[in-house]
Queue: 3 jobs
Job 1
Amino acid sequence: MGQIFAYITYKGGVADDSALELVAAAKKIDAGASVTAVVAGSGTDCDAVCNDVAASYSDVWKIDSDLMAYPNAEVIRKALVNILPGDSIVLVPHDTFGMDLSPGLSIKMDSAFVADAVDFEGIDGDNLKIVRQEYGGAVSTHITCNIASGAVINVRPGAFQPDESKSAGGSVVDKSGDAGDLTVGRKYLEIVEAEVGDVDITKSEVLVSIGRGIEDEDNIEVAQELADAMGADVSCSRPIVDSKWLEKSRQVGTSGQTVKPKVYMAMGISGSFQHLGGIKGNPFMVAVNKNPKAPIFQVADVGVVADILEFMPELTEKISEG
Amino acid sequence: MNMEILVCVKRVPDTAENEIEVNSDGTDIERDDLVYSVNEWDNYAVEEAIQIVDKVGGSVTVVTVGDDESEEVLRREMAMGANNGLLLSDDAFNGSDGKGIATILKAAAEKGNYDLIMTGAQADAGAGQVGGMMAAMMDLPYASLVNKIEVIDDKKLKVGREIEGGNQEMNEIDMPCVLSIQTGINEPRYVGIRGIRKVASVEIPVQGASDLGVDAGAVGAAGADVKLVDYFVPELGEGAEMLEGSTEEIIGKLIEYLKAKGGLK
Amino acid sequence: MEPVLIAPSNFFIGFFPTVIISFLLPVVGVGLFTYIMAKRIAPLVKAAPDYRFDHIPSRVMNVLKIWLAQWRQPRYMVAGVLHIIIFFGFLALAIRSTSLVIIGLKEGFVLPGMDGTLGHIYNIIKDYAATGVLIACILAAYRRGVLRPERYDVPEKYGHDHTGEAVFVLGVIATLMITESLFEASYVAAQVQKGVPPEFLAPLTLVWFLKYIILNASIDTLQVLHIASYYIHDFTFFFFLCFLPLGKHFHVITSFFNVFFMRVKKGNIKPVKHGVSDEELDDLESFGVKKLEDFTWKHILDFYSCADCGRCSDQCPANAVSRPLSPRFISIKGRDKVFNNYPLNGPFLKSRPLIGDIYEEDEIWSCTTCGACEEECPLGIEYIDKIVDLRRGMVDEGMVPQSLQKPLSAVEKRGNPWGKMEKKRADWAKDKEFAETCSVKVLEKGATADVLYFVDSISSFDDRMQGIAQATARVLTAAGVDFGVLGKAEKDSGNEIRRFGEEMLFQDLKGQNTDAIMDSGASRIVTADPHAYNALKNDYNGLPPVEHISQVVTRSIKDGSLRLGRIEDESKVYTYHDPCYLGRHNGLYEDPREALNAIEGIRTVEMLKSRDRSFCCGGGGLMLFYEPEEEERMGVLRANMAADAGANVIVTACPFCLVNMEDAIKVAGLEGKMEAIDLVELIDRHIVK
């Protein structure tokens, strides 16, 4: 098996949670392997991240280039192709960057590619056994991936618990010189930030979050009343924003906001991983849903099978009384 | 100006109208009662392509790798406004993994002279890989999760990508290029039964491995690096403590918990 | 006998004989009128065909009732009475007006037969008529100009206010009355002055008052008044005639025809194009109304006939909740567009798409097809078919709101807008608790029954509405009816599918359902869903007779096969909400009430807006999925109407009404004070074995 590399994504000089999740993922593939972190970027931010993750990885390969001041997947892919050994196992978080980078990377490295892996179940000859999901998480699959010529594997953020042991303690190696010609056909321009709404849910301590179970825009009032009674803010899942019932700034999820509340009330939310991916810090989660089989009940602390349109007003009343 | 656009589409089970379950021997999902339609992301891509061509001229070709049944999605997209359809079908294609599909589509793309190739950001398998692979195979620039496209001139596009936090990453990308399209980029037009009947007898050419010059060993089950072992539903763990009793009792218990966890102010 | 004043036919201004004016005015007037009418008829010729020559006896009845007897006018009492006076006044004065024109050419002219007693009687009638019309005009002008009732208001986006034009025309009519009376009064005053026995003037009429006012004027003054009033009248008359086709008073001319051609059958939707059968639909180039000429000639005649009275919009529930729809302005904007594209002067303009020009997408999607507008219109203007045709046009162009695309695709694939699996359509009958007390035959694999219970989608799949299906099954069983359901062979009836413009999908559903129904061998169909009732009865053909469950209940109570007990809760006050598709569209107002009142001791009240004035709950079928722009929900207004009537239970006879009312009660904060229940459920609870 080739060397295992973990691609580190970061923002503002701080490594993403996935950095330590990939340590755990790599260990699951091969408990004894030494894993190399790859940090691409530019300047002090890049350095800071290298130092940050060095404790968890056998070594850190730094690729520093002005063209990577913003993580442009096209540029980084070229560098990785030149720097990484051909049969490497490259682990990348399955986030918007990973989706951009990895499929093309696997082709250029003549390796296999698996997206959105949620678990590994060992190696059998040339095949790595991987667990994935399909149909929006409705079913799971066991697959095998031939890693003889290497593989690029995107790992679902949050699928593995971050390995905080910091038991590796590697050194930072500067591989920038091997990056090669980085001319690409795509140029980064700028970030257009999402409109800031009236409420910043990323700072909320208690959230009353609504999903499709709210059924109608007019019912959002009911959730707001509960939130008011609890001293909480209202947030939501993607379908609510797609229907334009609430602004994007209220959306909790991988393509929305990341929240870290103490208490999270999931009302009428089924519990798709993209939604859950936006909840960090392991809050006390209460789930209310009409469907007893809703996946949310797997991750919540407390669950109630009920129609939120009936349950929420009653809860609001009792809270207001007491 | 003039833009020749190729949009890769896929026929998938309609998740909204289906209950997806694993079949009795775990080899696939239960397909007996499924209804199918075009992959939602691909539909957004076709709508975007049609809108671009409406503005700057050119044509939209929709292509899919499949069998006779896949033709219906090509026809639906043509009823929507795509000018041409192309079906890539061959027994040798069965069992292809993502790279195999990308290889087949690439062969078809190279036979044309396309300025822009689009795929949906992901499909039923949730991999989102074919577009990126095609770009790399064809040495074309790539951008994924595109939620905005502006034609700058006949050589460049300005595209926005949906990234974390609801933000949008703006890029300039050279043509020809490959883009994978995110939902919400536009509001796809409705295709009624009438529209579909109008294109019911339009000719859709079919091409196989030899027409495309694709090596059978590089595609299909034979050429796949990634293979399916089985489908399953994971055992449910402990999960949440389900509160039982009358609504009053449940609410009482819940309020106790909330007070303890700091959920009430 | 020598005339006391010189008649207009013999008068001279200097050397100029005014008889020339008497000749020219009619010639120019009629000529100009003809020219204008030709321009107005042009778009009718270019418009789509419409077949309106069937059911002649019904059409004649409509003319007698709605046009002549002004049957709908008193629904708005004050305006109605004023209009009736003006209308009958005009009719009565028709003879006088005609004679007056000719009097200008030939002094003392009377129409044949009008010289004797008949003429005298007529003179009295016409004098009261003119007086009545003048008083009505003054009151009307005061109402329009000072009181300004809300329904005449013109929202900014629709342009300038119409009060000026309204008051102007009232002024014109008043002028006609005054000058006609003055012409006569001046003559009679002169008779009195000259000692000639004066003509009899009916007391307290306008002419009678005028005579007294001018009695002592000099003969010269009287002569001037006589001639001046004549020619002012003549001029105003022909001015008015040519003015009529230029605005809302066109209805004076077109109303007779518009009422004659108005729809005689209710509840159904017009075919995509008259003359094109369902089988030929595939060959049509274009569906629906996209530009002006796609409307049928009757619909364009409707635009001409709109009197801008605002009654339609006043009754429109969409308008009441501030959706972007006001039926009145569908007509006014349509009319103005026709006038604009077919100007009196200049070439006809090429038509552009209406959506995005005079109509907006949301405006057209906002309509629930409740029919309140058509029920109200005193001129027989139709709205639903126009809205449906505009929607057909939008669907053809792919302009369907995202919120409707999913349910439409679900109906296409699964036969119901929720996309639930076909095989689960009859699962409501298999519910354990229910199945223990009632068994339901599924008519498949050769099973037959006398009566087919057509459940339709919402009652089959919605958790709450399955209650209606179950209650209906129990009621039918208790009444001894041999019935069955189609199960998975049943598809959505398609009532809203058609009304939202997806005609071909509707045709598909119709074909599949018709086959399934005929295969079942049932000789009668019963349904508890008024939308299904309407579609099966009015839009499908060749089916066995269709009934609503309330009709079955009422009949069964009468013949003793069903017995109801005493009301369980004596304290509750019930009010019946007429569903649009049972009431207005199909005239079933009494059966549900009889069924309700068959429950001994039940306390009922009627809401102010009931029967054909019932206020739509918000709409059914696809309308449940549409996301309108509105300030309030229709259901909330309706729940408040029930509360205002003193009720605490709203009884509906439609699953969509029930969904909307239950939701509305929550949103309106009336939980605990108001509840909603379906008629069948209520009946079911009170069955005595």
Job 2
Amino acid sequence: MRDRQLRAREMLRGDLEGEELERYVEEKVVMTNFDKLLNWGRANSCFPLTFGLACCAIEAPIALVGSPRYDLARFGAEALRASPRQADLIILSGRVSIKMAPVVRRLYDQMLEPKWAISMGACSSSGGMFANYAVVQGADKFMPIDLHIPGCPPRPEAVIYGFNKLQRKIMGNPDQGWRQRYNAAGSEEWARGGPRSEPSPEAAEAYEQARGLISA
Amino acid sequence: MPDAPGLELIRGEIEQDHPGAVLETSFDRDQPALVVDPTQILAVLTWLREAPGQGYAFLSSLHGADYLPAVPRFGVHYELLNRERVERVRVKAMLADPGEGQPEIDSCVELFPTAEFQEREVFDFFGIVFKGHPDLRRILMPEDYVGWPQRRDFPIGGEPVTFTYNERNYG
């Protein structure tokens, strides 16, 4: 007992090093399921992308995020990020026209893993009333959608309920499996490390060319 | 607005300078309109803009229309405005469907720079070629889009919605 107390004191002083410290940690710290903790953190600190497509965009950032009545900050998602590189949730708010679809897909591809997408409202889920030549009939034709929220526009309560569902999904960490469905295996982008974080030769060449243009 | 006799007056004056340019006039719901020969559209627009006492110097809108099955099929409409007297006059040029190829009309970008984007829009949706336009590309649809989507014989697109009601009654 006295021996343990002494070693704890040594640890706090920072005198324990190397193998001794590792043994100490193994003895003392109960490693819980770290993934669970991580997903809990992710679910409760979502960073939605500042992004709007059409009239549902009036609802999403203003009614949900900006207003005290339906405060999305209660669920830790009040910080909108202006860059897809910093966001991990994209809310498709409105119809996606066929000209906008590649742009939306590109934004989604630029977001770092792990990432989620909510299709908010009838238009982005199914084309809604725009059954015509100019609008994509459902955004899941060109990108994976985790959650569809029906409505035109959905009530704020519905969006919040949907967001809570998404939080459960994040915490459950289901195997998404969409990369196989959408032929997107190998398109992962992680924040750092990992074999996929190297740019492709073409991308590196384009980057160098762009740098040359800037410095010239 | 020029009233109906005023419109006839304008027609008569155009007739003196450009014989055969005005094919028809219409005065419907207090809106005067000149139907002109598409080959002389620039002459008429220039006349309405420059002639003393006219001064229709502002093109408030340019748009296209498809009147299928009427002949001639396409219409290009110029809504002109005199901003001093706040008077409007509409100029219509009716274009026949050439069958093969696309209907053509002179571009009025030189006259009214605002027409540049509006002519691109008409080209985008109806496939009407504006000769002399500096940059005639699609403006709203993707540039690789095929077809002229606002023509009446263009399929509307989209997907049929399979509601149970439709299934039961029409399926």
Job 3
Amino acid sequence: MSALKNMQLEWLSNIRLRIMTYIILVSALFYLSLLLQDKIKQLQTDNARKLQNLSKVIHLKNEPEWLKRSVMMTSIKVEAVSNLRQAQTQGLAGAEIQSYLQRILDSNKLSRSHITLGNAETVDGPINLWKVGVQIQGPYQEQQLLKLLWQLNLDKKLFTIRTLNFTVSKSASYSLFIDYWFENPNTSSNI
Amino acid sequence: MNMSILQDKHSLTSSHSQNIENILVDSTKNQVSSRFIVPVKRSACVFAHFNFSNLSQSLKQKSLSIQLKKISPFKNFEQYVIWVENDAMVWIWQSSENNLKTKQIKDKIKYIPETILTGSRQKDLIELTKLSTGVEGRIWKNSLLIGSRFWTKEPELHEWNLFLRTHGLKPMAELPKSQPYTLLKEPWYKPTIYQEIFTWIKIIHPLWYISYAAIAVLSFQLTSVVQLSQVNNSLQRQYEQSLQSANEIVTARELAFDSRKSIHQLQQLSPWPMSLKTLADSLQLITDMDATINRWSFNNGELTLDINAKTPDPKLFVEKFESSPFFEDVRINNQTRNSNISLILKVKQKIDYNKFSLDAEEASQE
């Protein structure tokens, strides 16, 4: 008797074999069906995204004003970037700020004030920057503090006064914390 | 049919040996290892024809097994079945399993009754065929072998007519001329691969229901996948074509958005007005209120002011500072006491995002 006939007879006589085969087959088909369903969902999502992109591009074709907008925004960006300080290294950036502030303090006769320079930090973003934080502390004298702020205000380059504290009392003092911003020369090509 | 089987049984009882050597056709005895098809002597076989047209597919095999056990003169037997639709032509012979020397040989060979390797399949015919030993009477009806009887030598006319009568046929005046003996290389009936598959499908018929459902669901899903893929490809092509023609504008738009991101980044680095402006404005307000500053604390946009006032009316100070363009959300600090007023103010951000806004609709799609 051939193996095929044996299999046929075994199949017909063994109900457990049949049931298990049906279960395996149904499971396999169900799994295949789930795979196809996932593929359908993925294609539907993909199609919706592509349709959206297509409609956006078709819409854009009718908007030549983007050329003007681009020129305008680029010129504003260039102007904004030109307000950043330039330095080759973070060390040089810190040194530049130190000497710049010392000059201002000296010119305003704020000899009792002193400068504490923080470490330069890299700030990531559309434009990569260096941040140099500086703290100026000293005894409070209203006119000299206003002069100092006036001098700082004359600076056209970008800086941020984070904190300004002063107290008017017997031990009157002030403290000023400023961030100075430098363009990172290693990534200036993307500007 | 039953008479024919009885006759076959009778012929087997007298001299048949249990050894395999005695049931194989002489010319093939020494070629077992090289040939896969080995003819079994007709004299060693019992033949029967069954019609199962009244039974369902699943019962046919089972019914055949029962019938074979009923008609078999052997305790253990092997069988060769030819299924043609609802008809089964069956040969059974003594199982020779114990006599085989090795399993390897058993797996190599295929035993086929001598009947199927001699003569040919006929449509409607009564014939006498010579075999390796003896002769065989065959009755064909609608291309089915419905009767077969073995004799060691040509039968007498009355024996022949008895054979015919067992199959409901009229007696003949003389014996038909016997066909010469020729051993075929292949059986005269061999199911094609399609028939084999079809047989399998019929046996496993419950699977049809699963298959119908699966085919329906999977076909629907496959069709969807194909259609969606086509749409996907078409959209991709259209997108690429449109992008090519609008390339300049698309690039300009991307550049505009990139530039705006950079501008916003730089704006956010210095979001508040210069401290000098806020200080000057505050001092002016405080002087107007006939008061002096005790403490000024500006910290990341939040300003805390301790004021020494001659008429410490907090409401007046709050209203005054709220009217300033530099401050918002003016509140009284809980630590206020005596003639001191402590205020907490938020310095308004100077960033005007609208100044650099691109088309609002486009910006939302960014």
